[in-house]
Write a structure and sequence with these properties.
de novo design (two linked rop proteins), Rossmann fold
């Protein structure tokens, strides 16, 4: 069994990948590697079985409970900033534990704990992050708005949509903090089928993701601290499908980024992958796709049929603004060849394909093994190709 930090559970890829995603938040000071290591040791001692959902959520939530209690004790003693760190960590551990739990009361209870601790931690540690509600159809989408540092007037802005397993509480940090010091605002948003929008508001994902993309643009363009002519769209993981579609069908976006490409033929991917999902051999659980896309009774066959609508063929060709596609040579969720296909199909005159390798670092899915390298590359590219002359050096 491999014992690399990226493969903590060896051939048990679903657990290793989910753990690596949590470890990837370590540079932002919101998880502790030692705590994650202790969780991993307990899971290995319990059999290291990807189909054992109880072991997974029990160990992650046990650490969440422990760390949340440390936060409450610290806050009771007036150690507010220390408490904020504990709450942030508890939030991420609960969110990781919730990931493998099928939809139902237990999943909702765990997510409630995650959201409660996220809110506690963000209020203390990141009080300048503005929690906002983006008007969308007959409701709103939850988001964090992170303002650009040192900019008194309207600033360039990046709208960031999540992947299938991620949330605004992640992207507001790993994108928002870096973009802010570059002189960019960030709108980190849970779109339909993502984070809070799915779990609390019950909003499933949709194939025509330009609809929430347009709603996000309209929101930021209406803010006085946003330069409406300098707004870029970005999506990571599954957002690698959303961002090109939004850029193609909402030309007011000045540029776009696919932080990890998605399968070009998602229908074919789902057809051939469902048995592996049942065995826990892939990063995505068998229930995840039907749940995210609002399929009644989590009927996988109906999800497969629905996925026929999720295509960028004939759409990516309509992208005209500058566009960046990032990927990694060791991406074990989406192979780098899919990024090459997307890049080749894009209609942009200015387009860049960046594939990180193991020597440079950032070779894993969405550069989770070196998330800072990926985000820095994006920020530099935006400064040079989209927000020219407007970002801080």
């Amino acid at each position: 069994m491999a014992n690399h930090w990226t493969d903590q559970f060896g051939s048990n890829f679903s657990w290793s990948n989910a753990t690596m995603v949590t470890k990837g938040m370590a540079p932002y000071g919101v998880v502790a590697m030692g705590e994650i290591e202790r969780i991993g040791e307990k899971l290995i001692a319990r059999g290291n079985d990807p189909t054992d959902k109880e072991a997974w959520y029990q160990e992650w939530c046990a650490m969440g409970d422990h760390v949340a209690k440390l936060g409450e004790d610290a806050e009771a003693k007036g150690r507010t900033l220390s408490a904020g760190d504990y709450y942030m960590r508890a939030g991420y551990y609960y969110y990781t534990g919730e990931r493998m739990v099928p939809p139902g009361d237990l999943k909702s209870k765990i997510y409630d704990k995650a959201l409660k601790n996220f809110k506690r931690g963000f209020k203390i540690r990141y009080p300048k992050f503005e929690r906002v509600d983006v008007p969308y159809e007959n409701t709103t989408l939850p988001a964090y708005f992170v303002k650009a540092e040192g900019v008194s007037g309207p600033a360039p802005t990046v709208v960031v949509f999540d992947g299938l397993d991620n949330c605004k509480e992640m992207s507001s940090l790993f994108c928002g903090l870096e973009f802010s010091r570059r002189g960019f605002n960030t709108l980190a948003i849970d779109g339909p089928g993502q984070g809070e929008a799915l779990r609390i508001q019950k909003l499933p994902s949709r194939w025509d993701y330009e609809v929430p993309g347009i709603a996000a643009y309209n929101y930021v363009a209406g803010r006085k601290d946003v330069d409406a002519k300098q707004v870029a769209i970005m999506g990571y993981s599954f957002g690698g499908y959303c961002a090109p579609r939004i850029a193609a069908l909402e030309p007011r976006y000045a540029g776009g980024v696919a932080f990890g490409a998605m399968w070009w033929d998602m229908h074919a991917w789902l057809v051939r992958s469902q048995e592996q999902m049942k065995k826990g051999a892939l990063a995505t659980s068998h229930f995840q796709v039907p749940w995210v896309f609002g399929v009644p009774d989590l009927d996988f066959n109906k999800a497969v049929d629905l996925m026929k609508k999720f295509t960028l063929e004939g759409v990516a060709q309509q992208v005209k603004s500058p566009f960046l596609t990032l990927h990694g040579t060791n991406d074990r969720i989406i192979p780098p060849g899919e990024a090459e296909i997307l890049h080749g199909k894009l209609g942009s005159k200015v387009k860049t394909l960046k594939i990180f390798d193991e020597v440079e670092g950032g070779a894993e899915h969405c550069q989770v093994d070196d998330r800072q390298a990926g985000v820095n590359w994006i920020a530099d590219w935006l400064s040079e190709n989209v927000f020219t002359g407007k970002a801080k050096a």
